[in-house]
Amino acid sequence: MSETLVTVVSVSSMAEKTQAEAQPLLWQPRMGRRRINSGVFATFCGTCTILGCIVLVYLLWTMGSHGFDKLTWEFINSFPSRFAHKAGIKAALWGSAYLGFFTALFSIPVGVGAAIYLEEFSEDTRLRRMIDTNIANLAGVPSIVYGMLGLAIFVRFLGFGRSVISGALTMAILILPIIIVSAREALKAVPQSVRHAAFALGATKWQAVRSHVLPAAIPGILTGIILAMARAAGETAPLILIGALNFVAFVPEGPMDSFTVLPIQIFNWVSRPQESFHDIAAAGMIVLVGMLVLTNGLAIVIRSRNQRKLQW
To answer: N or C, where is the chain less crowded by C-beta within 10 Å?
Structure first.
């Protein structure tokens, strides 16, 4: 009996020793190679970031060096002209403001409302999945396609003509997929415990969404709206297709008036051979960038205040 026990113990110890010797063969972390790959990837990402910053600084410096001297009150408060020293951006500036206002008026309520319904109220049906797929695909459609759609529907079929309302509706359709997708992602990020707590206190579905889910999702929704409006402010091809004018010597007084916008006016000046027009085009770029920075900064401040109020 004792010999059998000794034999079993020896066999068990030999098995444990064999397993311990084989363990390094089964798991070889190769930390050296991992550190090298990690360092190479970090270096690549850092290099790309530095190159992007260098290009951005160069573009801003070129734009400022050529256009800062031309940026005067006369330039902002003057209409376009055949002479560079008399040309200004008053018509394009007011046209961009009108277009941005009506685009936001049409796109933000529809986009956020559609996101709330699809994310909070609709059931997981085949129709809902088909709508989700189409919305995701529409976000990648070239802008010129939306321009053709606006020309066919708003300009010709509905008879709005080449007006501010046609341009605003076209740009609203262009940025709707971006707003819907970003708003839905913001709603998904709200914890389910918020909804459950509201239901436990007797709130209805709409009351839970209105009073708890939507305020918590506002920072993410604002981020999507910022990105969408920035794209709308820089688009040119759809507006050219629906008939935005290159030369406008008046300020639009209503949504049915003709218009032009800053990107079209800048493109018109850049396409001219005179160097003086290139300088005022750079000044127009500074104004456009300033408008984008001011608008985005205001939205970021609002988003930051809401984030501080909502700490989970």
So the answer is: N
Asked if 73 contacts 229 with a C-beta cutoff of 8 angstroms, the reply is: no
Say whether both 119 and 240 belong to one domain.
yes
Average pLDDT in the 108-130 region?
88
DSSP 271: T
| Cβ atoms 178, 228 nearer than 8 A | yes
Neighbours of 227 (CB within 10 A): 15
43 and 138 assigned to the same domain: no
- What is the amino acid identity at position 250? F
- Judged against a pLDDT cut of 90, whether residue 48 lies above it is answered with yes
pLDDT digits (tens, 9 = 90+) for 282-302: 888 888 888 888 877 877 777
Determine contact, residues 182/221, Cβ cutoff 8 Å: yes
Tokens 């050296």, residue located: 32
List the domain range (segments joined by +) for residue 46: 38-67
Angle CA(16)–CA(20)–CA(21) in degrees, nearest 5?
120
Give the closest residue to 174 by CA, choosing from 122, 113, 242: 242
How many independent structural domains does the chain possess?
Answer: 2
Output the average pLDDT for the chain.
Answer: 81
